[in-house]
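Re-run with default settings, no changes from the original entry. Doing this only to confirm the output is reproducible before filing.
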Amino acid sequence: MLTAWYFVLHRPQAGVALRERYAGIYRLLCNKYYFDWFNENVLARLTRGIGLVLWRGGDQAIIDGAMVNGTAGMIGRLAGVTRLLQSGFLYSYAFWMIIGLAALLGWFLTHS
């Protein structure tokens, strides 16, 4: 408290002289050791860059593009092919089931 009284009330020019003499230390302390500058210009910019890469590469390309839209497109193409195989006649479905069972039985008999 005595130091504040001396430099502010009693001899304010002494404070100005000290500030000019130790300008580097004064600037370092006023800028809080440049931690705020480092945080804003290095860490925050790096974090935003990583987030942008993960958003575009991970979310848009992989999740939205390949998984969501890719799966929907694949199901649409598979449904289009399956639609061509369906005739709607019960005897046709029974015939193909018998053919499939015969093929499965033949495979079991030849491999056992």
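The chain has a mean pLDDT of 92. Helices lie at 2-10, 12-21, 23-30, 35-85, 90-110.
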